[in-house]
Amino acid sequence: MVGVGEVCGWSCLVWEVDSRSVVNGKKKNISGDRAGGRLEDSGVTRRRRRGLLGWYRKHFRALPWRVEPGRGRAPGSRKQHPNPYHVLVSEAMLQQTQVATVIDYFKRFVDEFSTIQALADADEQGVLRAWQGLGYYRRARNLHAAARRIVEDHAGQIPDSVDALLSLPGVGRYTAGAITSIAYGQRVPVVDGNVARVLARWHGISEAVDTTPVIKKLWQLAGHHVPKSRPGDFNQAVMELGALVCRPGVPDCGACPVARDCHAHQTGQASALPVLTKKAAPKKVTHHTLAVRHGRRYLFVQRPEKGLWSKMWELPTAERLAGRPGGDQLCAWADRQLGLRIDSPRRVSGFTHQTTHRRIDFVIWTATAKSSMNTKGEWRALGRLNDLPLAKPQTRAIAAIQADEITD
After folding, report:
1. CATH of the domain at 350
2. pTM for this structure?
3. Could you tell me if 62 and 170 lie in one domain?
4. pLDDT tens digits along 10-64
5. Are residues 158 and 21 in the same domain?
6. Are residues 287 and 242 in the same domain?
């Protein structure tokens, strides 16, 4: 997700722990950073670690992929530690998805694919089906591909090094850091949205945290803070603090165990940080979903290998029809794209679906096929779709068609 480096002119200058630097012409043992003119000594860093780890032990959320704080694996220890496979799956699911949403999906997923070998042996369509509803389906395909690579190249053992993990499909620096620190007890940092927000407030970072120079600095700061002992607990504690206390907007500084050492809190800037660059407005597009019926069955087709909702199944959907097409245009599209002759379509309903970069207005149509000679898809009763992975807009479209059948 993000990377490391020095930034000329940036307000935070970071040294290694116990390194030596020159302050006012004198050498002084320091560790930490200078943010907004403050020079942080090693005592502040140690105090943050103690306070945060103590708070985490009391307030951590018991999640199915976690173990109790303080029982994580340290190098060479025999203590209980999280299952690396569970960490891999949970981190894939948690990308751009809230914890509360992930919990049930995680349980069902590891019940169905209990080991990395079981996931590697699975059919991709089955993996997508198990992922259905979580969205961002590329994560599922990458996780499946990573499982196969782990089985083929690592004898079914999830790697314990950042470099080896980074070679896997879909694994970036954050996920590699999470696995190595949480599952293997290595002193490796993580930076996600929660960590970036916490660090920006701790250090009074006034530059936009989603720009490349500042992202690099955040990784350097994160690496400085991670302790040798219990690095996985510490990384999870920072993320937990960001999720529960140091929230976007107005944080709950009164509940923060390290507020005394937070630059933003001490200077009254907590609600103003972090700074983010202004995002472009989502592109507005219209998709026309055509529910083609032959008897009691409807036509479903598979999406292309690349692009939005790739390799998922759907009711045929026209994405590039100009203007406000009517029945004649949709009949021509069905003939051209599906090889089907249909009667005049009838508009049923519509809804809006938001993706990261698009605001999609779905228009739902229904029509009857004059023949079922199409060979590009499958004809299915709407009650027999359990083996077809469907994105959320398609489940909504199907619900609309089913409601229309009742009232028709």
Report:
1. 3.90.79.10
2. 0.83
3. yes
4. 223 232 222 222 223 333 332 334 333 344 568 899 999 999 999 999 999 999 9
5. yes
6. no
- Does 69 share its domain with 145? yes
d(CA 188, CA 180) in angstroms, rounded, equals: 7
Distances (CA, A) of 319 to 24, 322, 396: 64, 9, 17
Contact of 231 with 224, CB cutoff 8 Å: no
Q: Are 374 and 301 contained in the same domain?
A: yes
Query: How far is residue 218 from each of residues 211, 292, 389, measured CA to CA in Å?
Result: 11, 52, 38
- Does residue 115 share a domain with residue 195? yes
Q: Which of 361, 344, 343 is nearest to 352 (CA)?
A: 361
- 290 and 249 in a common domain: no
Tokens at 209, concatenated: 């945290």
- What are 132-178's pLDDT values in tens digits? 999 999 999 999 999 999 999 999 999 999 999 999 999 999 999 99
Q: How many domains does the chain have?
A: 2
Which residues sit opposite 361 in a β-bridge?
286, 352
| 405 flagged as catalytic | no
Instruction: At 398, list the tokens.
Output: 């199907």
The whole domain housing 304 covers 283-407
Q: How far is CA 349 from CA 194, 330, 332, 395, 401, in A?
A: 39, 16, 21, 14, 9
Catalytic residue among 16, 40, 68, 91: 91
